[in-house]
Every structure is written in C-alpha cells, then in structure tokens.
C-alpha cells in the first residue's frame, strides 16, 4: 500500500502541510496509530518466517517498520537488530547532535549503508558512533538466514485489525456489522457519513435512466421481432446495432457538444449537480430534486441511450426466438392477430431474461456509471471510488467494494423474488 | 459446421461474415503498417554514403531510435533538415509522436497547414485530420491508436479465454462428482500453506524489487512464483496419488463444481472498471504489458461461465460416451471432443469480449489511467478534444474509429451466434 495512512489523517485533521512539527511529533502519531488499530496484527493468524518478529506492527513509523522487517529478512537475527535499534533510540532521546542522521539510520535496512551513515555520525560524536558500530557488527556476526526458510503460524485471537474492522473493539470503533466503515484518509470524517448519500445519487441516476430505457426499448423490440421481411428487419435494426456499439463516453461527449455548447445550443449545464454556491443541506429534498433536474438530464440520457440499444436488441432476439414455438401457432389458429399474440403471450415469456438485466442495475450503480459520473462531474459513488483510488484512500475503496458485494447479493435475491412473480412454475422450495 | 477440419474459410462463408472479416483484416494491416504510411521519418535515406530505413524500424518496435553519425534522432524537425543524398518519404509526412509546433492549437482539417517558413505546405505535409493542442497529427494518432487498441483487446482476451475456459470446462465436466483420493486431497490442502510460503512469502522482496526496477522483470518474478506455487501443489498431488494407490484408500467425492462456481461468482461480482483502476493505481506504473495482464485476469468469468454451460451441454451427447468406451482419457475428451465442438459458441464470446475490452481500453486512456503517456491512443485523442469543444475533428475521427472497431466485433459475434431465430410468418 503506497502512502502512510497516519500522515494522511494527521494532514486531514490538522490541516498542516508536510514536514510540519505536528507530523513529526511521535506522541501524536503513536496515539493516532493506536486509535486506528494499526498496531494490531492483520488477521486471526499469520504465516511468518521463523526469523521474523510478529510484533513489528507496533512500530508506528511506516519507513522504520519496513526497514526493520527488511533487515530481519536480510540478516535473520532479530534480538541483535532490536538491541541495535534500541541503541539508536537511546541516542536520539539523549539529544545527540547527529539526530537527523540517527533518524535516517532507523530507516536503512542494509549493513553497508548503515555503516556509511555511522561513519558520518562518528565524525561529530565518536562515542555514539563507536557504540552503534559495535552493535551493528554484532548483527553481521550473528547473520543466519536459515530462519527465512522455516514457516511458522502465529495465532493472534480476536485482537486483530480484521476483527476490529468487522465487529468493532467495543470502544471508538463500532465495526462494519453496525455500519461503521472507518475513516476517510482524505477528510478524516467517518465513511458512513457520506457513502450512502453518494450511493443514493448514483442509484437515482441509474434507476431513472434504466427505467426510461426499458419503457422505450421493450415495445420497440417486440415490434421489431414480428417484422417478416428480412430486408426491412435488417434496415430497421441497423440503427440499434449502431447505437449499441457507441461507447458511453462518446455519447456523453456528443451530448455535451450538441446540448451544452454555447455555439450550438446551451440548454443544459455541462457538469455538477447543483449551481455553484447552492447548499443542498439548507433545502428540502423536493427542492433539491427540482434544482438538480437540469443537471441530471444529460447524464441520464447518456446512460439511458447506452442501455436502450442493449435492451431493445435483447428483447427483439428473445421474442423472435419465442415466435417459433408451437404455442404461437396455436394462438394464431385460435384467431388472435400476431400483434395480440406478441402482446399477450410472447411478451410474458421475455420477462425472465429482462428481469436478470434489470436487477443488474444494483451492482452496476457502483462501477457502471463511473465514466458518466467523471465526464459530467456527478457526485456519485463511481467518482468517489475514482478519487479514492487516486488518493490511495484505501478505507473508502474497501468500503465501496464491500457495498458492491452486498449490492450484488441483494440483486440475486431481488431477481429470484421477481422470477417467482414472472413465472408461476418457479416456487420457493426447500 | 465442423471446425475440426480447421476450414476457417468455409466457416466465415457459412456464417456470412466475409465483409466484416475482410474489413477487419484491412484495418489490422493498415494499423500495423501505419508507421510506413504516415511518418515524419523517411522510408529510405542515404546519408554520407550509408543507407538508413528509419520508418521501417518503427513498424518493428514502438519506440525505436535511429542513430545517424552517432547522434540519436527522435524529434520532429531533426529529420526534415538533414541533407540527404537520396530520400524516399512515406505518403504522409507526419508521425504519431511528432509535435508540430507550426500547426498546434487545434488546426482544423479544412485549414491549410503551414510549413516551417510559414508558407502553406504541400499536400503530403497537410494535417488531413487536423491537430490537437500540442500539434499532434490526428491521422497518425488514429492509426497508431487502432494498433494499440487491437493489441490490448486481442492479447487480454487470449489471457482471459485461457483462464476462463480452463476453469469453466473443469467445473462443467466433473460437476460435483470429482473423485479424489483421501491422501491426495489432504496433501494438497496441507501443502497449500508451504507452497504459498515458499513461492510468495519469502520471495516478497525479490518480487517488489523487480517491480521497482521494471514492470517486465516484476511480472517475470511473479510468473516464476506462480510456477513454483503450482509445482509444489502438483508435487503434493502426485505424491498423494502414489500413496493412495499404495494403501488402496477409498476415494471421496469433492464438490468441485460448487467450489469453482463460487469462485467464478466472486470474481464476476467485482465491479470491473473499478478493480482495473485500483490495480493500475496500486502498481503506480503505466505499462502496456501490465494493462494487458490486469484486463486479462479480471475479465475471465464470462468465458468460465460460458465454457461451463457448453461443456455441460455437450457432455450429455452420446459420442462422448462412445469416446469413453473407446478408452479416451478425461483430458482427451475435454480437449478433443468437447471444446472443439464448443468452439463456435466460444468464438462468439471471444468476439464480444474483444469489443468490450477495446471499449474498456479506450475508456481508460480517455481517463488517462494505466496507459503509458507517450502512446498514441484513441481515448487520449478524445480527451484532448474535450479541452476545446469546437474541435469536432478530435471527436469525429477517433470516436468514429472506436465505434467502427467495436461495431465490427459485435457484428461478427452476432452473425456467428445467429441460429434459427427468424420468424418466418
């Protein structure tokens, strides 16, 4: 994982730039490190090499932690390395004049480079240099890397990061099961405070556009399926095939070009959800909806157009296949017109695949609208995920993947319930 | 229709996709040969009595450098000002990576381009499709972008199809009745931990060091780790099998299909584009090979599901039973009898998948994630069109090209899949 989460939260909370005194204060860092639960092991158990120390997580400084781990991997003698590091820390506590060099020494994993830095230290304070050099030589003397090749299992019990993330620790963390996703590394605020609102925006966008697409595409698909002449059918389905192949972001760019362009017509705003300076928290939900409506029309059209072609094509294909079955012939010979047959018999048989497609909108709310949201600067969950990825804001990424999994599961359940409504043959069975 | 004769010509004729395949081949050839169609380097030049073929070098590798008199020439104007004894230029004189400073800031294709002195240039130096803000020639970039899109789409699909068809066909063939020896099963489960330990845990630093020095060496180390992992597992399985035979233990049934289907479902439920963006950002390096690897390893569930269903369908046919009676092994039945008969269905999925992966690639380059910066891509041209909304040529040409590519692959897929779903009145 790139980036130090403790640094990020400190910057978010105290609003300081890098290299500030707050960032370097070790008490504050340690306190936050413990508060975030990072001093705990990752999981209920861990696989380690015999030479590795399993309490390295307690070191709050990421660079020092990595250096210790790497050094143990290189030399395989944890007790000697530990006493060497304690010697350095003691020297730092005694306000040695070479304090900056000593701090960098903690982040160096190899003997060669450490020896060079100690050389420099001993020019100013020969005493410290001599003691450090003796400890460092001890490491090289006890070097034995055979421990790297012996696997061990360590059990940590309930005091681990995964358990705290899932069930909380009974104090400040409530855990995922109680709706606590942890803190955003960028703003420092709890993720649960904003993620559901963002998901709501995305669901609003996707639900409206998919409903629009279904309402228009299904009648069209049914109409296309009962055209007899192959030539006419090919000509009429060509626009749908063409629309199906246009990427969503191209549709978005074209819509902006034609409808949000001062040179053509400027009917709709290009991006955002509200006018600049508008505070949605001050107004009622209905008021927000009305204010945001012109901003939502272009994103909705984009997504609706790309789903429209897909649904129309699917409906036409299924319906054309259904028309070959015997029940259609029976209905026709009963005296129904082909129009009535399609509307009353065939349509009902296209429901099952259409339900499968329709319930896909729940998981699609997370990833499917990413491009549309980015182009129109729409504050949905896709844009949140994108920003989180660019900022290495990994609690937010984990939260979004968790929500996506939950949405996928609920879409399966939703689909199964709807199947039972659509097809009387499908029943709940044990 | 039988693909076992390997008569691809007949297949193309029967499925009525002749024109689509011809057009696709034409696009493929033109895009691969794009450096000798439009380039700012000469096809052939002789300088101080020596011969050079700089444009042909570009066909073989993307970032080729040509040394002339010990000096490396890459820039735009370098080639135009050399005093050649004899020179043959490509039909159009603009390269994909060239920045034409005389014609920058969104030169329209309707506008006559200028040369270095400020006069209007001859036809072969015109920007036929216009330029973007930095003065990149749109025509050369569109041709280069097609090559890049096809490279990413086809290579990623090959990786995805290999993984997906392997997992899907095993799940579909053995179903939930996969019998395995007791010692073998226990051996594999027990040896998973040391296999993981020896191939990934203690090679952690080797892999991360290789990734910091370069993506290619990193991927090689990762592949070596994967090889080590599977080698240890295979060793455990073989030893277990030997011990099972030795002690004559009763085999037990393993619910292989439920297990593999669960894995397929888990991978299918991950939102595709977000995992690609996350992985690309996590590695932090922009590389074509890495992008192919990421796209290939995240888009296989489609193939796994399809292969599973197809194998389940074909397995019930009576010729499979005959093959088994004749003594064919399981792997031979899967490979020779089932998968060859499933090829038309898999070809449909492959065609659609190439189309959708080209879409994902162009979307990523449109957003500027994962794709190396100085590569000609269709998405990055479209992005540069968004800086200046009046520049219609930056939307129409790359957008139309992406559309054409995706349309061709979708059309091919559709036509292969066409069954008797025509209503005949």
Strand order of the largest sheet of chain B: 2-1-5
Level of helix content of chain A?
A: 55-70%
Tell me the distance between the termini of chain B: 27 Å
The oligomeric state of the chains shown is heterodimer
The main β sheet of chain A shows up as: 2 strands, antiparallel
CATH topology-level fold name of the largest domain in chain A: MetI-like fold
Task: State which percent range the strand residues of chain B make up.
Answer: 5-15%
Strand order of the largest sheet of chain A: 1-2
The CATH superfamily of the largest domain in chain B bears the name MetI-like
- Strand content of chain A is under 5%
User: Order of SSEs of chain A, N→C?
Assistant: HHHEHHHHHEHHHHHHHHHHHH
Evaluate the radius of gyration of chain B.
27 Å
Under CATH, the homologous superfamily of the largest domain in chain A reads MetI-like
Average pLDDT number of chain B: 83
Count of DSSP H/I helices of chain A: 20
Helix content of chain B: 55-70%
* Rounded average pLDDT of chain A: 84
Describe the structure.
The complex is a heterodimer of chains A (430) and B (425). Chain A is mainly alpha-helical and 430 residues long. Chain A has two domains: 37-160, no CATH class; 191-429, MetI-like (MetI-like fold), CATH 1.10.3720. Chain A has helices at residues 5-14, 21-24, 26-35, 62-75, 78-93, 99-105, 111-124, 126-141, 161-167, 192-225, 230-245, 248-259, 285-322, 326-333, 338-349, 351-359, 361-367, 370-376, 381-390, 394-422, and strands at residues 45-49, 151-155. The longest helix of chain A has 38 residues, at 285-322. The model of chain A has no long low-confidence stretch (mean pLDDT 84). In chain B, the strands form three sheets. In chain B, strands 2-1-5 form a three-stranded antiparallel β-sheet, with no helix packed on it. Chain B has a two-stranded antiparallel sheet with strand order 3-4. Chain B has 425 residues and is mostly helical. Chain B has four domains: 1-38 and 138-176 and 255-425, MetI-like fold; 40-89, no CATH class; 99-135, no CATH class; 178-253, no CATH class.
């Amino acid at each position: 994982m790139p980036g130090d989460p403790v640094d990020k939260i400190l910057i978010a909370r105290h609003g300081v730039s890098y290299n500030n005194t707050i960032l370097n204060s070790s008490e504050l860092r340690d306190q936050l490190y413990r508060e975030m639960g990072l001093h705990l092991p990752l999981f209920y158990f861990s696989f380690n090499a015999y030479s590795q120390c399993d309490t390295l997580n307690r070191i709050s400084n990421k660079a020092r932690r990595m250096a210790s781990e790497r050094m143990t991997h290189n030399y395989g003698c944890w007790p000697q390395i530990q006493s060497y590091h304690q010697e350095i820390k003691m020297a730092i506590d005694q306000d040695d004049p070479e304090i900056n060099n000593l701090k960098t020494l903690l982040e160096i994993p190899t003997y060669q480079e450490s020896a060079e830095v100690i050389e420099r230290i001993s020019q100013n304070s020969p005493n410290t240099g001599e003691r450090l050099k003796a400890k460092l030589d001890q490491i090289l003397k006890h070097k034995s890397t055979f421990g790297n090749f012996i696997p061990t299992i360590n059990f940590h019990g309930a005091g681990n990061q995964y358990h705290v993330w899932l069930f909380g620790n009974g104090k400040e963390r409530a855990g995922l099961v109680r709706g606590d996703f942890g803190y955003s590394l960028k703003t420092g605020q709890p993720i649960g405070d904003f993620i559901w609102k963002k998901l709501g925006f995305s669901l609003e966008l996707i639900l409206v556009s998919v409903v629009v697409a279904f309402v228009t595409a299904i009648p069209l698909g049914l109409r296309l399926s009962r055209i007899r002449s192959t030539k006419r059918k090919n000509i009429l389905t060509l626009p749908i095939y063409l629309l199906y192949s246009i990427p969503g972001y191209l549709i978005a760019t074209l819509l902006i070009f034609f409808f949000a362009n001062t040179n053509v017509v400027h009917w709709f705003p290009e991006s955002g959800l509200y006018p600049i300076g508008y505070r949605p928290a001050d107004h009622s939900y209905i008021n927000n909806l009305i204010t945001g409506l012109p901003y939502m029309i272009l994103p909705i059209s984009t997504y609706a157009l790309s789903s429209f072609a897909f649904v129309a094509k699917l409906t036409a294909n299924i319906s054309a296949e259904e028309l070959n079955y015997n029940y259609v012939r029976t209905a026709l010979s009963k005296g129904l017109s082909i129009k009535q047959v399609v509307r009353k018999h065939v349509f009902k048989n296209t429901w099952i695949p259409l339900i499968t497609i329709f319930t896909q909108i729940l998981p699609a709310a997370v990833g499917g609208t990413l491009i549309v949201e980015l182009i129109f600067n729409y504050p949905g969950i896709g844009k949140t995920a994108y920003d989180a990825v660019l900022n290495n804001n990994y609690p937010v990424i984990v939260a979004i993947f968790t929500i996506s999994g939950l949405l996928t599961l609920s879409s399966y359940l939703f689909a199964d319930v709807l199947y039972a409504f659509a097809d009387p043959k499908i029943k709940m069975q044990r | 229709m039988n693909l076992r004769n390997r008569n691809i010509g007949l297949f193309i004729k029967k499925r009525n996709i002749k024109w689509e395949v011809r057009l696709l081949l034409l696009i493929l050839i033109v895009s691969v040969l794009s450096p000798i169609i439009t380039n700012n380097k000469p096809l052939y030049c002789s300088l101080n009595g020596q011969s050079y073929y700089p444009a042909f070098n570009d066909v073989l590798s993307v970032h080729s450098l040509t040394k002339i008199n010990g000096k490396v020439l890459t820039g735009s104007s370098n080639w135009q000002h050399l005093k050649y004894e004899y020179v043959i230029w490509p039909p159009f004189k603009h390269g994909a990576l060239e920045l034409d400073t005389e014609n920058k800031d969104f030169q329209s294709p309707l506008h006559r381009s200028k040369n270095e002195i400020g006069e209007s240039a001859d036809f072969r130096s015109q920007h036929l499709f216009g330029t973007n803000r930095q003065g990149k020639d749109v025509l050369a970039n569109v041709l280069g972008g097609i090559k890049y899109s096809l490279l990413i789409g086809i290579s990623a699909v090959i990786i995805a199809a290999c993984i997906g068809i392997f997992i899907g066909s095993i799940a579909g063939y053995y179903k939930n009745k996969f019998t395995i020896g007791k010692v073998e099963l226990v051996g594999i489960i027990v040896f998973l931990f040391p296999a993981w330990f020896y191939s990934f845990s203690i090679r952690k630093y080797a892999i991360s060091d290789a990734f910091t020095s370069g993506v290619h060496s990193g991927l090689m180390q990762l592949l070596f780790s994967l090889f080590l992992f599977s080698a240890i597992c295979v060793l455990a399985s073989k030893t277990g099998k030997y011990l099972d035979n030795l002690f004559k233990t009763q085999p037990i049934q393993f619910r292989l299909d439920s297990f593999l289907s669960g894995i397929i479902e888990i991978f299918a439920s991950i939102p595709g584009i977000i995992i690609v963006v996350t992985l690309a950002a996590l590695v932090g390096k922009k590389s074509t090979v890495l992008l192919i690897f990421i796209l290939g390893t995240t888009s296989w569930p489609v193939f796994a599901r399809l292969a599973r269903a197809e194998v389940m369908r074909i397995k019930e046919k009576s010729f499979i039973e005959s093959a088994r009676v004749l003594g064919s092994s399981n792997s031979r039945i899967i490979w020779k009898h089932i998968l060859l008969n499933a090829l038309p269905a898999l070809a449909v999925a492959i065609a659609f998948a190439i189309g959708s992966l080209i879409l994902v690639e162009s979307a990523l380059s449109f957003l500027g994630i994962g794709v190396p910066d100085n590569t000609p891509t269709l998405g990055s041209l479209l992005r540069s069109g968004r800086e200046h909304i009046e520049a219609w040529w930056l939307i129409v040409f790359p957008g139309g090209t992406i559309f054409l590519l995706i349309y061709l692959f979708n059309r091919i897929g559709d036509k292969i899949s066409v069954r008797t779903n025509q209503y005949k009145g």
